[in-house]
Amino acid sequence: MAEKLASRFGFYQGLIEVAATHPDVVVVDADLAKTTGSYAFEKAYPDRFIDVGIAEQNMIGFSAGLARSGLVPFCGSMAVFSAGRGFELIRNAVAYSSINVKIIGSHGGITAAGDGGSHQCIEDIAIMRALPNMVVLSPCDSEQARKLAHLMYGYKGPMYLRTSREPVEAVTTQYDEILIGKAQKLRSGKDVCIIATGMMTPLAVQAAKELAAEGVESTLLNIHTIKPLDEEEILKESMACQGRVLVCEEANDMGGLTDAVARVLVGKPVQFDFVSVHDRFGQSGATEELLHAYGITSDHIAEKAKALVQKGCL
Predict the structure, then answer these.
(1) DSSP strand pairing (271-277 vs 168-169)
(2) Where are the beta strands (DSSP E) in the chain?
């Protein structure tokens, strides 16, 4: 079994690698370095690490100033603070002027179970998707998060990357090629197209194996770039699976990947369903208990996929 590591840690491993050859990389933190994983960067490059304290709006504004001076700032906190408290500054100081600031939102979704509903961010994908000029990224495992750190540096403009608190099994490798704006095809099938992002992708991989054992062959698309979305690949693979489409995300489906995919498929002959957080906040509890309570499990993915197949095609 592959090693389990949280994507928040994989990302900063990658950023340390980037910083080794790019002295313009700096990290700005809002007093949560150990929580988000940025403490690893602080240890490696203490003179390029800035802690602004518990002041997320200041973190964004400060980063915008650094970017205007020619540096490449990566700033981050828990997603509920980065995307929430920092939103006004992200909108007006970063996205509006298309400033080269990279924003990291850690602890996305309900798997930040121990932090309670107030800190489990289920709306960040929708918030960031709504901003013009903003690229939205959601790696599925630590290895992909590491790679995206490299790609983020090479992209000029505002970006938001969501990482997870909980460790997940790696379903990608260092040899996989990924590109901003391109879906990653992890599996080919003819019966149903599963489209997943973030920590839902490892669950979808497990579900696809369960489905195959029952004779249901699925295509699995990993969406590490939610915006810009690879509409061409989604449409092609959906139609190749007779229009049976299942979207999986650990976020509110209203405004999230579910809505984004639905926009691509409007007017097409499809059977469409989703596994997601359906317009409700998180709550306190053990991670596994919450996942079952919200229907975010590999079993639930498999059940919904089989139901789509049983419906047939339009």
Answers:
(1) unpaired
(2) 4-5, 25-29, 49-51, 72-78, 102-106, 135-137, 159-162, 168-169, 184-187, 192-196, 218-222, 225-227, 244-252, 271-277
Question: Is the bond preceding residue 228 a cis peptide, omega within 30 degrees?
Answer: yes
Which residue is catalytic, options 3, 17, 42, 56? 56
Dihedral over Cα of 207, 241, 201, 126: its sign: negative
Average pLDDT in the chain: 95
Q: Are 218 and 305 in contact (CB under 8 A)?
A: yes
**Token pair in block for residue 168:** 């997940």
pLDDT at residue 1, as a whole number: 47
The H-assigned helical ranges of 106-159 are 124-129, 142-154
- In this prediction, residue 112 carries a pLDDT of 85
Tell me if 70 sits within 8 A of 26, measured CB to CB: no
Tell me the backbone φ, ψ of residue 278, rounded to 5 degrees. -100, 85
- Rounded to 10 deg, the angle between the 231-240 and 257-265 helix axes is 70
Structure tokens at 71: 């540096």
pLDDT for residue 47: 97
Mean pLDDT for 192-197 is 98
Confidence of residue 312 (pLDDT cuts 50, 70, 90): low
**56 among known catalytic residues:** yes
Instruction: Encode pLDDT of 256-303 as tens digits.
Output: 999 999 999 999 999 999 999 999 999 998 888 999 999 999 999 999
The reported pLDDT for the residue numbered 116 is: 87
- Angle, vertex CA 251, rays to CA 41 and CA 269, nearest 5: 130
Torsion from C-alpha of 167, 169, 308, 277, nearest 10 degrees: 10
Cα–Cα distance list, 305 to 101, 136, 199, 207, 276 (Å): 39, 26, 18, 9, 14
